Each structure stands twice: as structure tokens, then as C-alpha cells.
Amino acid sequence: MAVKGLGAVDKKYDGSKLRIGILHARWNKTIIDSLVQGAVAKLESLGVKQENIVVETVPGSFELPFGSKLFFEQQKRKGTPLDAIIPIGVLIKGSTMHFEYICDATTTQLMKLNFDLNIPVIFGVLTCLTEEQAEARAGLIPGKMHNHGEDWGAAAVEMAIKFSDSS
Fold it and tell me: CA-based, 20 to 30 A from 34: which of 40, 96, 128, 137?
């Protein structure tokens, strides 16, 4: 099964004037690290300057929505506002209903943040049935899939530019 990434974009985007935040969970470190590296690499390839990519952590995926809100507010208070946020997490199904509850709550609240913060909040949370699925989507199994972090970086740049006040 091959899953394609973002696909063709409608034009070339220059992210050189953007400031992008990445907030990631610390659970499933190997998978998370790969996804963060993929997002950062894509952001840099689209012109986002290394000093304008701000990376911060929270304990787990459930903390991503509130952490993203606090991260956004913190950067704004410092006079360094973010143009988009990529919350990155990995949820892997276990033997209880915990997975379903965390997936639903996290997804709903991250989507809501787009409207509350009025900036793009990219859905960078893998919700997988197995660890192997998560590893594949993080680009850790050669030839199986690509690193979804790259898609999230591209989406952040496109959304921040396409719908900003200056476009």
C-alpha cells in the first residue's frame, strides 16, 4: 500500500518571511524525532530560516492543544509571533479505549485552535493501529511510506502564505 504525500502544490511558496512553531510530544521518541526532522527539513527547503523555526515539547499528544495555545501566546508576548504551528504527536492503539478518547479529544481541539488563534494549526498527529504503521508514516521503514512530517511542513508554509493578510 502506497500512500502519497501532499501532492502537487498550486504554486511555489517562499517561506523566508515566516516564523513557524513546532510543538511535539515526547512519547514515542524515535518516531517523533523523525517526524520533527522531516518537518524542519521541508520548512528549510521552502525558505523558512532556521532561526524562525521554533521547536518546543510537551509530555504527550493530549497536551498538544493546550500547549499549542500557550506556545502561541508565549511567542506573541515575546514579540515574536508565529505564522503557523505544527503540533506533532503519535498515538498508537493499545488494548483499551484510551486511544479512541485521546484521538478524538486531541483532533477536535487542534482543529478548533485554527479558529481560536486565527493562524494555521496543522494536524501533525499520527493515529495508528500499530507501531509499524507509525514507523512507516515517519519514514523509518525504507520503501514503505514517506515521512509525513514533510507534508506538515509544506502545509504550514502554504497555509501561512496563501491566506495571510499580506498575500
Answer: 96
Tally Cβ neighbours within 10 Å of residue 72. 22
User: Is residue 167 one of the residues assigned to a domain?
Assistant: no
Please pick, among 24, 98, 146, 148, the residue that the annotation labels catalytic: 98
pLDDT digits (tens, 9 = 90+) for 69-125: 999 999 999 999 999 999 999 999 998 889 999 999 999 999 999 999 999 999 999
Q: What is the pLDDT of residue 96?
A: 87
CA–CA dist 134, 89 (Å, integer) = 10
Q: Please compute the mean of the pLDDT values over residues 49-67 and round it to a whole number.
A: 98
Please answer whether residues 83 and 160 qualify as being in contact, where contact means their C-beta atoms are separated by less than 8 angstroms. Answer: yes
Whether 24 is a known active-site residue: answer no
pTM, entire model:
0.93
> Residue 129 sits in which domain range?
23-28+35-51+59-162
